[in-house]
Design goal:
The chain has helices at about 5-20, 40-45, 150-155, 165-170, 180-190, 200-220, and strands spanning about 25-30, 50-60, 60-65, 70-75, 80-85, 95-100, 105-110, 120, 260-265, 270-275. By secondary structure, it is α+β, with helices and mostly antiparallel strands. It folds into 2 domains: about 5-135, N-terminal domain of MutM-like DNA repair proteins; about 150-275, Helicase, Ruva Protein, domain 3, CATH 1.10.8. It starts with a helix and ends in a 5-residue tail after the last strand. The model has no long low-confidence stretch (mean pLDDT about 95). The structure holds zinc ion. Zinc ion (ZN) binds next to loops.
Amino acid sequence: MPELPEVETIRRDLQGEVVNRKIKTVEVRNGRTVRRHASAKQFRALLEGRTITAINRAGKYLLLELDDGSTLVIHLGMSGQLQRAKNAKEAKVPHTHAVLTFTQGGQLRFVDPRTFGEVFVSVAPAEGEPRLPELAHLGFDPLEDVMSWDRFWALLASHHAALKNLLMDQEFVAGIGNMYADEILYAAGLRYDRRSDSLSSQEVRRLYRAMVETLAEAVKRRGSSLADQQYRDLFGEIGDYQGQHQAYDREGEACRRCRGTIVRVKAGGRSTFFCEDCQV
Ligand SMILES: [Zn+2]
C-alpha cells in the first residue's frame, strides 16, 4: 500500500507533467472510483474545462489544485497507480478506472485493481469556510508540519496507545502505514507496543528524528516497491528504498544493528517486524 514516500514521489512526478494542463475530457470507466459523487456525470462536469495549477499532498492524499479554487483529490488506497500516457491510442492496462485527457494532448490515468482507491472533487469553499472539509480529520503531516519535540511529546502523552497503532492512526499523524511504522520504530529503537505516554524525553526525540529521517530518505529513494505490492511511480518505475529496509519483511534475518534476529508478530490482520533485542 502506498504510504507518504510513495505518494510524495508521485506528487513530484505530477508537478513536472500536468501543471498548467487543461482538462478537456474525463472518462469514468468504473463508478466505484468516484463513489463520493452522485454520478460520474457530476464528477466530469466539475473537471472538464479546468486547468491544473499546482500539486499538493496531505498525508496519503494527492491534491491537484484547479483554477476555480476546487481540488481534485486522489487516494491510491491499496493498489492504485497513476499513469501518464502520451495519447489516447496508448493501450490501457486492465483496471484503468478513470482517464483525464488534456487539451494540450496526453492523458492521466487512474489504475486500481483492488478498487479501494478513489478520486473526488472537493469544491471551492464558500467565503469563511475551510478548504477540503473531506480531509479535516487528518492529523499533522510529518514532513510538511515541522514541530518542536515538546509539542510532539505532548501529543504522544495525550494518548495511551501502542506506538505503532498511533503512528498508523491517520487522525494522529497522516501518511504512515504498516511498512514505514516498522522502519521508524526500528530506527528509534522502540517496540511497537510501547505505550505512547511512557516515553522519556530522549525517546521522544529519537522517535521524532526517526520519523522525519526515515520518510525523507525514502522520498529521496523514490519509495518502496515490494514483490507482492503494486507501487509504481508516474512513469511505471519501481522505487529504490525497499533495499534499505531494516525491519519490515526481514523475519528471521539478522538485525543490522545488534546481530539479533528480526521477528514477526501478527496482530489485527497485519504483521509487525522488529528486533526483540534492541527495540525496547
Ligand atoms: Zn537489534
